[in-house]
Design a protein that fits this description.
Blueprint (H helix, E strand, L loop, with lengths): L2 H9 L4 E5 L5 H10 L3 E5 L3 H8 L12 H10 L3 E4 L10 E4 L14 H10 L8 E4 L7 H14 L8 E4 L9 H7 L2 E5 L2 H11 L7 E5 H32 L3 H8 L22 H7 L8 H11 L1 H14 L9 E5 L14 H11 L3 E5 L10 H5 L4 E4 L4 H4 L3 H7 L4 E4 L6 H6 L3 E4 L6
Parallel strand pairs: 1-2, 1-4, 2-3, 4-5, 5-6, 7-8, 9-10, 9-11, 11-12, 12-13
Antiparallel strand pairs: 6-7
The structure holds ligand SAJ.
The site of ligand SAJ has 20 residues, from helix 9.
Length: about 450
């Protein structure tokens, strides 16, 4: 089938869509296109997830407005069906690939899931199919890995019998459906005609700008937008460390700096987690193919990755001020998700914190109202602990009664990693209080 033929099947929504990978990105994508009227076949290697989806149950917990209802409806109407078998994609006109693309410890892209998906997909593709990779990729991956793999495995040529593009996702846990509908997307095609066909497809679910470009540009845009965020968070964190050392309050400094036109200092915090920001800067750096060393990107990653250990040092200093140390203390970690009001614990800074605390000989008790394993009464959890460390600004913690926390703790130490509490109120409640970016004079 030609791109023209595909475009008419997109126009009347008779095109059969496939989605490889039904996780935080793939599942909402599959639901959105099914909700827009397409028949969608999803494939995921996790049998339990496939079973849940086909039962109309959403495997993604946490607050995802509208997702569970949309999933239930598109499964009930049989527009969306999930399977573990790539054979179910055999007649798809379009296949969206949404698999994880992490980085190894050596900061190189880890493309096992991507290669495996392409290897399984290529043999079942029909002539004229359009494959769109939505996963975040190091610049150069579409040309250097995706295209040659698909051509080698299918025996067909891209832009002749196969069509190929890259449309990186822009989602955020807690706003999956909303972001997909309302955020602009770069639509990278291996040819301008492919970009046009992709634009026609995404226009069915995206209300915002769809910006056509080539695949390399699309890879650079996505990785750069997250590297940009990481570098800016790192600046906020480094400013916080300087203010602490100087005995100042970074939050007042930040507020006044941001009054200056064109300034927007982000939020200092206890670390940078998630499945995007910690790894996309390394994917961008990889795109330089070793010809340019991404020094600023690497330095920013080092600053952000150092924040959990800094929080541990704040706790150690606070304990020392009351004659205790980390060794032998029991520390309550408030929040294990990487983001407020989410259950997503991927690359959580709290994980790094608990490692730092354990290395110093402290025992940790974890609480998180959104993460099933750590739910419970926070004051109960505080009993017998020698310090509480606030790592995630969950709404549930905003209303925490600090006087009751002080009573519950064995040693009344509170360290605030997300600027959730007022220092004076905390100290008035009898707590030994420390906070990122707030020096003690
Ligand atoms: N963080 C800070 N200070 C800040 C902002 C974030 O410490 O000022 C920390 C958060 O606590 C979290 C991590 O950084 O641990 C990441 O936070 P995030 O707000 O960037 O959330 P993510 O990781 O879900 O980022 C995603 C990204 N979207 C995609 O990759 C498609 C990012 O580009 C978006 O800017 C972000 O969502 C968003 O704000 O929507």
């Amino acid at each position: 089938m030609s791109l023209q033929g595909l475009r008419s099947k997109i126009a009347d929504k008779s095109a059969l869509l496939g989605v490889v990978g039904l996780g935080y990105v793939g599942l909402p994508v599959a639901c959105l296109f099914a909700g827009a009227g397409f028949a969608v076949r999803g494939v995921d290697l996790k049998a339990a997830r496939v079973e849940q989806i086909n039962a109309g149950l959403c495997p993604i917990e946490g607050e995802e407005p509208g997702l569970a209802a949309l999933l239930q409806s598109v499964v009930a109407s049989r527009r969306l069906r999930a399977s573990g078998d790539f054979e179910t994609l055999r007649n798809c006109d379009v296949v969206l690939v949404n698999v994880e693309t992490p980085v190894h410890d050596d900061r190189q892209p880890e493309y096992h899931a991507l290669r495996s998906a392409l290897d399984s997909l290529a043999p079942v593709l029909k002539p004229g199919a359009l494959v769109v990779v939505e996963s975040t990729l190091a610049p150069g991956t579409m040309d250097g890995l995706v295209l040659p793999n698909l051509e080698a495995r299918s025996g067909w040529r891209v832009n002749e019998t196969l069509f190929l593009g890259h449309c990186p996702e822009r989602v955020m846990p807690g706003k999956l459906l909303k972001n997909m509908r309302t955020m602009s997307r770069v639509v990278g095609g291996m040819s301008p005609a492919t970009s046009d066909a992709m634009t026609a497809l995404y226009r069915c679910v995206v209300e915002a700008d769809l910006d056509p470009c080539d695949c390399l540009t699309a890879e650079l845009v996505k990785t750069a937008e997250n590297a940009y965020r990481d570098v800016n968070i790192a600046f906020a964190n480094e400013l916080a460390l300087i203010c602490e050392a100087a005995g100042a309050d970074v939050w007042r400094v930040r507020e006044l700096v941001n009054k200056s036109p064109g300034r927007n200092v982000l939020f200092p915090g206890a670390g940078v987690g998630g499945h995007c920001i910690p790894k996309d800067p390394w994917l961008l750096a990889h795109g330089a193919q070793g010809k340019v060393s991404a020094r600023l990107i690497a330095a920013a990653r080092e600053v952000n990755d150092s924040m959990p250990a800094h929080v541990a040092r704040l706790a150690e200093e606070a304990l020392r001020s009351v004659g205790k140390g980390l060794a032998g203390s029991r520390i309550l970690v408030l929040g294990y998700a990487y983001l407020e009001n989410s259950d997503d614990t991927r690359n959580s800074p709290s994980e790094a914190l608990t490692r730092s605390l354990a290395a110093a000989g402290a025992e940790t008790v974890i609480h998180d109202p959104h993460v099933r394993a750590y739910q419970g009464d926070v004051l109960q959890r505080a009993r017998g602990c020698d310090a509480a460390i606030l790592m995630v600004a969950h709404d549930a913690y905003r209303s925490l009664d600090l006087a009751k926390l002080q009573e519950a703790l064995r040693t009344p130490v509170l360290v605030d990693g997300r600027h959730l509490y007022d220092a004076e109120q905390a100290r008035a409640a009898g707590l030994v209080f420390r906070a990122i970016g707030q020096g003690v004079r």
